[in-house]
Amino acid sequence: MKLTSVQFWEYLKADLQARHQKLNLLTFLKDPVSRFHLYMRLQEHLQPCKLAKPLFFFIKFLFLRLSQRLGFSIPINTLGKGVYLPHWGTIVVNEKDTLASFLSLMWVLLSVATPPRKLKSLL
User: Fold this and answer.
1) E strands of the chain, at which residues?
2) Which pLDDT does position 69 carry in this prediction?
3) Taking a C-beta distance cutoff of 8 angstroms, is the pair 22, 28 a contact?
4) CA–CA gap between residue 17 and residue 121 (Å, rounded)
5) Under the phi-then-psi rule, with left for phi > 0, alpha for psi from -120 to 50, and beta for the rest, what region is 82?
6) What does each C-alpha distance from 43 to 21, 30, 56, 87, 96 come to in angstroms?
7) Among 85, 76, 88, which residue's Cα sits nearest to residue 104?
8) Using CA atoms, how far apart are residues 38 and 120, in angstroms rounded to an integer?
9) Which of 30, 47, 114, 119 holds its CA 20 to 30 A away from the CA of 16?
10) Which own/partner contact pairs does 33-37 have at CB distance under 8 Å and 24+ positions apart?
């Protein structure tokens, strides 16, 4: 999913609004989850642009480092706008999933490792 500049700011503002925060520099310096959202949205915006590849890889490095520190395993292009991440700790999203907008992620199993047919036969 390529985000245009307008969509980038719209998604970022919706993410911050879900956390009841305003768009300013102090928010990103103080809150690592808001920084996570910023890095994720920047990657989604810069990914298809060939001229911005060095910046994309630097943002990706920051994103992966912060993801590891927070315990998130959320690939880019999986979250809709306004997704609320209420806590640090293990949050895992499959890269094939696409989550809806204005969603709160907490203690949810988003995908099953075994197909549903096999799961029924195990029960």
Assistant:
1) 72-73, 91-92
2) 94
3) no
4) 44
5) left
6) 21, 21, 6, 22, 17
7) 85
8) 40
9) 47
10) 33/70, 33/85, 33/88, 35/66, 36/63, 36/66, 36/67, 36/70, 36/72, 36/85, 37/12, 37/85
Average pLDDT over residues 22-50: 90
pLDDT per residue over 56-115, tens digit each?
999 999 999 999 999 998 898 888 888 888 888 888 888 887 887 887 876 555 555 545
Q: Which tokens belong to 65?
A: 């480092």
Any idea how long the chain is? 123
Task: Examine the pLDDT at 122 and tell me if it is beyond 50.
Answer: no
Token match 């912060």: residue?
A: 66
Which amino acid would we find at residue 81? Answer: K
- For residue 120, pLDDT over 60 is answered with no
The Cβ of residue 107 has, within 10 Å, a number of other Cβ atoms equal to: 7
Compute φ and ψ for 44, nearest 5 degrees. -65, -30
